[in-house]
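Batch queue: ligand-bound targets. Current item pairs a single chain with magnesium ion. No template structures supplied; prediction is de novo from sequence plus SMILES. Inputs echoed for audit trail.
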Amino acid sequence: MTLTFTTHMTMSYTVYNEAGGAHKTTTGVNLSEAHSRQGLNTLYIDGDQQEANGTYLKHAGDDRDDGDADNLVRHMLGQPRGDLRDLIQTTDEGFDVLPAHDMIEDFTELLLKREDFETNMGNDDFNRFDHLHRVLWQENSLQDDYDVIIVDPNAQAENMLVNAIYATRTIVVPAKPAGKGSKSLKGLSGLLSAMSEELGIDIGVAAVILSGVSNTATHQRYVDKIDAEYGVAGQIGKRESLMDEMWDARGSAFKVVEKGWLDGEPGKRGVRDREIDTLETILDIADDIADQFDVAPPNTPEIKIEGVA
Ligand SMILES: Nc1ncnc2c1ncn2[C@@H]1O[C@H](COP(=O)(O)OP(=O)(O)OP(=O)(O)O)[C@@H](O)[C@H]1O
Ligand SMILES: [Mg+2]
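Prediction returned. Tokens below.
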């Protein structure tokens, strides 16, 4: 098998943690908004078939259950029904969304069928991993439109995940400061070198972000341990009320705080200093990640509280 690469200049990364519920979608959406506030044209690609995904969170993808609709998977399988750019939705926040579609659930099965077909046709160069890479950078040149592309695949949908990592070459890892979070990181370097070898590429880790951190001695012990072993780009506090409200506000933590969302309504949330701190931390992490890519963001983002009780 030969692997062909195109180098692309766009800052792109996959939000990854093998563990479910590790705050990947929350982190991906908040970082997307942070990058767009830095003045970077940002696209969030949802590769997760679950209901509770970034597409729901951002109120996008109304036709995700329409089996006939064009969607990212059709493009990845080489059977598009339209222009990929027509799938991209603008949102009421700064960044764009390429929504998920229910077809993601069948991606592995469809991909393997396609692979069988190609093999039977005598094509030995079919590469199971390069479909997102081809769609984004080669067929559609999204690097011309976007400064940042963030992919949020479901870690259980392995082929979508591997395609995401192959396309972005870089991961950002949110993890919880707990025994489970520490264990999931432990497997990470082994997994990354196995993947690098299998895919024939270098995979970088742009940031490890501890999320859901409280002041307990246990959490702090894990923070110190994980920081010593992996280097932590930032710590996001335990902010259940803020992050859960995102699902009602259908938007980022910035929207929740700035528009004062509480109990499913805007204009009701008071200003909480620790929540402003959390937004600032997210902006700092976004800065740190941009720095890793040698990208100098044109804007210094501001947090503007409006419509708060
Ligand atoms: N900093 C935080 N503090 C407390 N709770 C949080 C924090 N960040 C996210 N959460 C909550 O944790 C839950 C899971 O988050 P999220 O959906 O982002 O995880 P995920 O890793 O994307 O899950 P999945 O593996 O299902 O894709 C959500 O209810 C979210 O509101
Ligand atoms: Mg998720």
